[in-house]
Structures are given as structure tokens and as C-alpha cells.
Amino acid sequence: MDAVNHQFQLAARPVGLPKPSDWHYAEVPVAEPGEGEVLVKVQYISLDPAMRGWMNDGRSYIAPVGIGDVMRSFSAGEVIASNDPDVAVGEHVGGLLGVQEYAVAHGKGVFKVDTKLAPLPVYLGTLGMPGVTAYFGLLDIGKPEQGNTVVVSGAAGAVGGLVGQIAKLKGCRVVGIAGGPQKCSDVVAQLGFDAVIDYKGEDLDAALTEHCPDGIDIYFDNVGGEILDAALAHLARHARVVICGAISQYNSTTAIKGPANYLSLLVNHASMTGFVMSDYLDRYGEAVTEMAGWLASGQLISREDIAEGLENFPDTLLRLFKGENIGKLVLKI
Amino acid sequence: MDAVNHQFQLAARPVGLPKPSDWHYAEVPVAEPGEGEVLVKVQYISLDPAMRGWMNDGRSYIAPVGIGDVMRSFSAGEVIASNDPDVAVGEHVGGLLGVQEYAVAHGKGVFKVDTKLAPLPVYLGTLGMPGVTAYFGLLDIGKPEQGNTVVVSGAAGAVGGLVGQIAKLKGCRVVGIAGGPQKCSDVVAQLGFDAVIDYKGEDLDAALTEHCPDGIDIYFDNVGGEILDAALAHLARHARVVICGAISQYNSTTAIKGPANYLSLLVNHASMTGFVMSDYLDRYGEAVTEMAGWLASGQLISREDIAEGLENFPDTLLRLFKGENIGKLVLKI
User: Fold this and answer.
1) What would the CATH number be for the domain defined by B129-278?
2) Which of B140, B271, B275 to mutate to test binding with chain A, by most A CBs within 10 Å of its CB?
3) What's the rounded mean pLDDT across residues B30-56?
4) pTM value?
5) How wide is the angle at C-alpha B274 spanned by C-alphas B268 and B275, nearest 5°?
6) Which CATH superfamily is domain B4-125+302-332 in?
7) Out of A69, A171, B100, B324, which residue is the most buried by the measure of CB atoms under 10 Å away?
């Protein structure tokens, strides 16, 4: 095979927001799949806030991307060559295939997806990592009960939008926090949240008092920083805070801002629990099956924000951190 | 009854450490017990870090002490008059009897203690609020398992010293954090901790690396501030952080310092849970019974630091915040 593979390699560890010189756009030969491996033509690349963490050095739940390595990403595409008898050419698969046009992966390291059930990008969103994150983060850590008040930050994002919808399915009152009028009207009108707070235009503390008169039973945090701190000040007794992300802090060049109101956990006998989806890999199918059912019955809406062109990867990634996407941000190759 | 009752009333809400003018030392007549009430001659007053919080205005797990009211405290003494048929004169009781020589309380609002089983001050420490706090905070929130590494701050204090001893009884490796050589040697030699870190004399981060090479499974926090932050950076996977107190922050006149390393919860799928003993009032007896058994068999050591004289209450309270006490600080009247 003589075809050319374009890929984004990590050229330098970013300080703050990733800049163009942190990337190297490389042209390499398409690799041959070895024993048990498959060759995938990548069609969609997922853009996730977690990618920013993978670019940093230091101990985390997953090793950092090495300098000179292809940038790690969840991607999905079509198998075009296979040395794994269980994976046929023409099947669609997803996995950690990287920011590139062609990926070689172990057949056992990818998961098959059925594009007759849902379009490919949905397997990177609602039926992929963000969906499984929302599902277990809310249900397993948040433990919603009928009538609970659930507050979700990053409500217009891939995870937040699903958390709110699943909470509604469980009989909760759901208040979203998002930035800007378009996202906010969207969260209520499209996703069915009971209320929304525009953190860019409203006094967060006053709005939480108004929308959560009995306090917050579950706060699902995707953003960290001042929004987390404001939510902590409004916890109800025995509240559960799910720490799923902290997008406001990922590009910070100064010290992370710790939640000064953490003693609200003490006076309210509340908990704050961190969550990474990788702990639930063995239960992935459980979440995907139930959410596919909700999608099929129209109880859950999946939204993708689709950009195009591998060469636009660096700029598209920045859209995440500028809060410009509504729903799951993916790049079509 | 014409006797005189001396008491400390809250005169002003302190800013920072309570100062003499925040108190009013009052001389009032001893009150007559009404229907169902008892009159208690107070013999011991408990000094607890939580008292500082009770002096502040604002929403908490318990109402603030009102200006002009007698200062709230756990106290214990002898019943000298009773209008409750279930409580006899001569019996010893404990309860929220306040910083005073004589207290009138509802008979159902005090608990009887048996001074033949343990001396009265022990019922304000190991068999009182600090003991029940240590017991449920560690066992119910921390959930220790054989072989876990448990780190306890405020290790020489009333709660911390018990947490470490109970963790040892459960088969854990226990590392204390305390301030100064005397407290530190004491924590190992007297209480049987496996190791201790002197936060005043050692580099906390390096010492945690040395003593917790596999990370911290349970961190029981009584102090907050920089020590909490350092511990968060050393969590093991699925660690449990018990937030019991934050004595380093109670007298702060600037904003509370939030734990900047809280995202360690995320990468380690760890939890941080607040705890107040009042949630466990219905299980108080369970803790006291088991701990009384451990005391009787010598498996648990109870230590009291006994000051004398009601008039010394303000200065004795400050000893808590200066970290001068070893074991449970009580005031003998």
C-alpha cells in the first residue's frame, strides 16, 4: 500500500491554549496492519476537553501523549484491510485511533459500530465516550432520585446536554448552566431542561437561589472554577457533586483555582466524587444499549456539531475551549 | 434556690481568633428547672473546634449562638434537682449544657453517663462527640479495608488520635500529621501510629511520598488548607477523603483557601465527603458501646488534656486553635 497518511503529531507541550507551533502536521506512509491488526480509514474524529489533559506531562489516569506521537483521539471509520478474522473489511469501528486519516489498530482494541442503528458521529458522542460518561457519572455517582434538583454546567456541551436529558428521564428537575443566549435557549427548547442560567449574563449566585430554592441535590460539574464554587454554596443536605471535568482550568497558566466553598460539603454532609469513564469500560455496553433505546424511542436527542477537514483540527479543538460548540464536536475527514 | 451561676455569654461575633471583648462573663441566678427539666451542676466543659463555627452568623448545620446567649458547649455534670421522673438527683449526665456552672435542661435532652465505667471527661471525648465523630467518620465515610494506607491530620487531637487508633484496629497502616516534636513522638509512642509527619518541621510533600509510596487510600482531614492540598496530591485510586474539619481556616479573616489539587479526585476516581456527627445521633449508642469495649480491653487509649477554672475558658479555647492540646481538651469547673 503506497497511500499517504496525514496526521497531527504533538510537537510541544502547550502552555495555556494550544498554539499552532504545538502541532506538527505530518505526511507519512500508510502503515501495513500486522498480525491481528486492522487498517481503518478514519471518517470522524472526536474533539474532547480531555485531550488538553493528555497533552500535559505528569501523572494522570492515562499516560500523556509523547512528543512526536500522533495526537490521541477517539475516532471512527471503516475497516479497509484486516488481519483479524473477527473484523471484516467494510465494517465500521471506533476507538483510540488518533488524529489522522488512516490508523492501524489491534482488532481487539476497536469496537464495532452499526451505522444502520445510528450515524457514525453518534458513536463518538451519545453512544461513545461522552454518552457513557454522562450515563455513569449521573446514575452511578450522582444517584438521582425522583424530584431531585440537578444542576449541570457545560449544559450545551456533549456530556452536559446528555446528563440533563437523562436526569429528566429519571424524574428530576434540571437546571443547566451555559454561556450565551443561543446555547441557553437551546438547552431549554431543544433538550427540555426546566431552566437555564447564562453564566455570562446573569449573577450566578442569585440565579441559583431563584432556580434552586431547596438547594442542589446533584451538581454535575464539567467546568470547575467559579461556577463550581457558586454551586457548592447552594448544596442541599446529602448533595452529590460529580466532578467530571474542569474545562475552565485546563488551559490555565496560573495555579488551579480550588473550590473555596468546599466546606459546604461538611455542613451539608455532601460528597464530591471524581469520575473518569475509563473506570467503566467493562460496563460500556450497558450504557450504550440503554441509550440507543432512548434514542430510538425519541426520549433522548443526540446532537453533533460537525466541522470538516483534518487540516482544521487545531482550530476546531480551540472552539471547545472557547465554548463555541453546541453538542458533540466532531471533525469529518 | 439562691445560688449564683457564672457563665460565658457571646458578646460579639469574632473576627479571626476570639478576643476577650467577644465574651461577657456574667453572673446570673441559678434557674429553677421547670416541668420535665433537670438542673445540672456542670463539672466538665468540652472545648471543640466546632465552637468557632457556632460563633459565626450564617447558614450551617446548626443555628449560630445568639449574641447575649450563653456559649454553646458539650458539658457534663451531676443532676442536683430533677422534675423528670426518669432522671434522678445524683446521676451524671452530658449534653449541650453550655459554658456555665449550672444548666437547666430538658430531661430528654441530656444523656446519662456511667462514671463507674469511665471518668466523666471521657464522656466528652472518646465516648462523646469526638469519639463518635472519629468512629463514624472513619468507618462509615472512609470505609477502611485491611492494608489500606490511612493518613490523619490533627493526629494528636481528640478526633485524629482516635481515628488513627481505630484504623489500626481495622488493620490499616496509619500515618499521622501533627505539629511539633512532642506531639509527633507521642502519636507514634502512645497511640501506636506507624509513622508521623511533623508539618512544622518537614516538607509535607516529600514526607507523604516517603510514607505513602502507594498513595493514600483514606485521608481524614481535620485541618484543611495546605495540608489538605498536599494530601490530595497523593491520593491512590478510589481514595476516600473525609472532611471532618478545617481548623486552619476557622479563624481566617481572608477567603477560605480551597483545595487547588481537587482535580486529583477526578484522575483517581476518588471522593471527598463532608461529615458532621449530628447526622449519626440515632446511632450514637452503637459507637459508644463498641468504643467502651475497646477502652475496657485496652485496645484504645483515651487521652484528656484537662484545664481548670471556668474563668479560664477564653484562654483555654485559644489553646485549641494554637494547637497546644494533646488529646481531648476539657475544662474542669
Assistant:
1) 3.40.50.720
2) B271
3) 95
4) 0.88
5) 130
6) Medium-chain alcohol dehydrogenases, catalytic domain (3.90.180.10)
7) B100
